[in-house]
């Protein structure tokens, strides 16, 4: 527990080394670390009660591989930092099946941010944590907030389901799409933009300026036919060259506009509350499943039922029902005993 107290204090004081260690802890798949991460959050909540921290704006930046996400985050990040903001950038790889190799390349790409005293860049996500990607990403965002960062950006490679996962973890989803890939409105087919609060067609400079503008028009038309994300917000479509400060400023303006609109309408709070409920359910499921797998007594019960199934004494569904009923009854018993 002493370790948790020190680590929590380091995070709240804004120590990057402590923040890094804390994120490593919540990303770890070792059972001991899982327990230590839980202790850390108990302690963090206690310390924050004395020094409350404001919520950061969490923005998911997603898009196909090579869309220009890291370059854009670097440009946007620099403007946020120039405006006196404190920024954390976290890479998320929801589909742990993908290599994450491209994200590792960002260490060099986000160099200017990584060196800035008001920025924190965490380029390589780990996979396979016990609580699942949603929990560990949420934990990482909470840690960044506790460390005083007011903007948390998540870079995620858009490969199918990942957008949905990311949209479930952030306040705003920005989808970046590159021009000139020759696949036109592919992103619609792949469901990439259903969760977009803002669409940005990237690399709108040089030879790609005209194709980017054409693609943005196509998306704007398509979006006008899609159902609104929520009343009061129609997903805008912008073009942007990350090399043009004016373009990046326009995107930042749109992000601010979204934030203000979401706060004003109550959508912001509602979205977070829904996310936290989903998170709670999935975290409890994950933890119960883990305990079922690792508890010796429960394992013995499961093996006993397994023997009965193999021996033809009982059908699997009947054994499962019997075990589940037993667990629930024990839980209730434990409750009344307290
Ligand atoms: N011309 C031009 N090139 C850009 C722009 N933004 C990014 N690029 C180039 O596009 C390539 C991919 O950029 P990244 O920022 O690494 O893209 P990414 O989406 O982070 O890529 P992954 O993380 O690998 O999925 C690089 O060669 C960049 O230099 C831009 O605004 N204009
Ligand atoms: Mg990248």
TrEMBL record:
Q: Where is the AAA+ ATPase domain?
A: 55-304
Q: What's one Pfam family the UniProt record gives for this protein?
A: MeaB
One GO MF term on file is:
GTPase activity
Q: Which InterPro entries match?
A: AAA+_ATPase, GTPase_ArgK, P-loop_NTPase
Q: Which residues form a coiled coil?
A: none
Q: Which GO terms describe its cellular component?
A: cytoplasm
The record's family statement is: Belongs to the SIMIBI class G3E GTPase family. ArgK/MeaB subfamily.
Q: What is this protein called?
A: AAA+ ATPase domain-containing protein
């Amino acid at each position: 527990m002493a370790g948790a107290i020190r680590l929590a204090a380091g995070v709240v004081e804004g120590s990057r080394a402590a923040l890094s260690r804390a994120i490593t802890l919540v990303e770890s798949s070792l059972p001991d670390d899982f327990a230590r991460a839980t202790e850390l959050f108990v302690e963090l909540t206690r310390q924050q009660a004395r020094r409350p921290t404001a919520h950061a704006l969490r923005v998911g930046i997603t898009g196909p591989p090579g869309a220009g996400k890291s370059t854009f985050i670097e440009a946007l990040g620099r403007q946020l930092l120039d405006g006196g903001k404190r920024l954390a950038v976290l890479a998320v790889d929801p589909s742990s099946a993908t290599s994450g190799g491209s994200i590792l390349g960002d260490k060099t790409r986000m160099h200017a941010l990584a060196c800035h005293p008001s920025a924190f860049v965490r380029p390589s996500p780990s996979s396979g944590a016990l609580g699942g990607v949603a929990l560990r990403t949420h934990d990482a965002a909470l840690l960044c907030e506790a460390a005083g960062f007011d903007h948390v950006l998540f870079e995620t490679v858009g490969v199918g389901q990942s957008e949905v996962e990311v949209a479930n973890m952030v306040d705003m989803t920005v989808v970046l799409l590159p021009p000139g890939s020759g696949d036109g409105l592919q992103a619609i087919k792949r469901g990439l933009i259903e969760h977009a609060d803002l669409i940005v067609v990237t690399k709108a400079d040089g030879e790609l300026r005209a194709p980017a503008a054409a693609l943005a028009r196509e998306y704007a038309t398509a979006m006008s036919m899609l159902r609104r994300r929520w009343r009061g917000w129609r997903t805008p479509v912008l073009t942007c060259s990350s090399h043009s400060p004016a373009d990046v400023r326009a995107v930042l303006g749109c992000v601010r506009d979204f934030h203000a609109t979401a706060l004003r309408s109550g959508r912001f709070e509602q979205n977070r509350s829904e996310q936290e409920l989903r998170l709670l359910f999935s975290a409890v499921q994950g933890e119960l499943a883990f305990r079922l797998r690792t508890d010796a007594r429960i394992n013995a019960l499961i093996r006993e039922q397994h023997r009965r199934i193999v021996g033809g004494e009982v059908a699997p569904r009947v054994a499962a029902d019997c075990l589940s009923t037993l667990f629930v009854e024990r839980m209730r018993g434990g409750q009344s005993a307290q």
